[in-house]
Amino acid sequence: MKPIFANDAAINQAVDLLRQGRLVAFPTETVYGLGADASNPDAVLRIFLAKGRPVDHPLIVHIPNVASLDAWALSVPESAQQLAAHFWPGPLALILKKRPKVPLEVTGGQDTVGLRIPDHPIALRLLQAFGGGIAAPSANRFCRISPTHARHVQEELGDAVDMILDGGACQVGVESTIVDLSGSQPKLLRPGHITRDQIEAVLQTQLLLTPQVAQADAMQIRAPGMMAIHYAPITPALLCSATSLAAIIADLIKQGKKIGLLTCHTDLSNDSHLGAVIRMPAQADAYARVLYSSLRELDSLHLDLILVEQPPQTELWRAINDRLTKATGVYPNF
Ligand code: TXA
Ligand code: MG
């Protein structure tokens, strides 16, 4: 399916398709979403088929305004009101207890539902014109890199999607921060552009961290293959520290490997032994914006290996380190 420039006529056509239970990919500020009418279980099942995603993985429902929270959430705690007021529209998804009418197909059988108002003019126009909730995971095949350009959606899903609205490049570049407010204490399920510090400042309380989120804290050394691979390129990718980079490259070149490199501290752009080098931005926001398109670019070059130089490990970089940890293994013996 070819992406279509998202003018009014295209948005109206997208609304018609959603009402017919079809799939529409659309831009958000984070990544492109693969949308279906969240109140239509058959439409929602199409999402899982198109992505090749297990049906017990819950979807985020995108809503047009804060007033719509009540239509999906059984109750809206004070904490949800506060976070919505501060960060919506924006790259934050809230997990709340669901109303009985929310299809279990959307929530992966759980009694909670993920909700967010995206901060993107096209997504908002689509949501307002549609009037209901749009269930939308990232518009990639299961376990692959999320799309940040309309052409990535086309590459990932081909004709499994009925329409692709083109809104250019996504500005945030990594998926939304997810905070679970359905339990007794707020919990960070997925780090994103909105940081733990920002959320804690609004809630005036500490967030619990899931073990997976906590693990990306210190990039503990793991054996490759131990982690669930998510957001991953097809080419094997390895994360290595700045200090070990030169030795690792020398070792791999000796083995005759074709290597692509994503650097952030070290400038190796003139190293002729390397298949391709992408020098990443030094600021976390700018790095996140181009992370997935850079991985895709290296992935398209048929290299033996992608090496990613470990970026800084401060709170601002948590979402990036989380995604890199999931996309890569760790170089053995270094
Ligand atoms: O930025 C984003 O959130 C993008 C754009 C399109 O909005 N969407 C996105 O969706 O990243 P997806 O499906 O790729 O990731 C949604 C995540 C999954 O990890 C899922 O487990 C979690 O949200 N999630 C959704 N509903 C949940 C629930 N009720 N309980 C726990 N986790 C939930
Ligand atoms: Mg995803």
3D architecture notes:
There is one protein chain. The protein is α/β, with parallel strands linked by helices and 334 residues long. The chain folds into two domains: 4-209, DHBP synthase (Alpha-Beta Complex); 237-330, Rossmann fold (3-Layer(aba) Sandwich). Helices cover 32% and strands 18% of the residues. It has twelve helices and 16 strands. The strands form two sheets. Strands 1-8-2-3-7-4-6-5-9-10-11 form an eleven-stranded mixed sheet, sandwiched between helices. Strands 14-13-15-12-16 form a five-stranded parallel sheet, with helices on both faces. β2 (24-26) and β3 form a beta hairpin. α1 packs across α6. The longest helix has 16 residues, at 284-299. The N and C termini lie far apart (44 Å). The relative contact order is 0.15. The model is unreliable at 218-227 (pLDDT under 50). The site of magnesium ion (MG) has 3 residues, from loops.
Amino- and carboxy-terminal Cα gap: 44 Å
Q: Can you tell me the residue ranges where pLDDT is under 50 for at least 5 consecutive residues?
A: 218-227
Ligand list: threonylcarbamoyladenylate, magnesium ion
Q: Would you tell me the structural class of the helices and strands?
A: alpha/beta
* Order of secondary-structure elements: EHEEHEHHEHEHEHEEEHEHEHEEHEHE
Global morphology: globular
CATH top level class name of the largest domain: Alpha Beta
Kindly provide the radius of gyration, computed on alpha-carbon positions and rounded to a whole number of angstroms. Answer: 20 Å
What topology, given as strand order, has the largest sheet? 1-8-2-3-7-4-6-5-9-10-11
The pLDDT mean sits at 93
The CATH fourth-level homologous superfamily of the largest domain: DHBP synthase
Instruction: Please tell me the CATH architecture of the largest domain by its name.
Output: Alpha-Beta Complex
Strand percentage:
15-25%
Total helix count? 12
CATH topology of the largest domain: DHBP synthase
Q: Share of helix among residues? A: 25-40%
How many strands in all? 16
- Tally of structural domains: 2
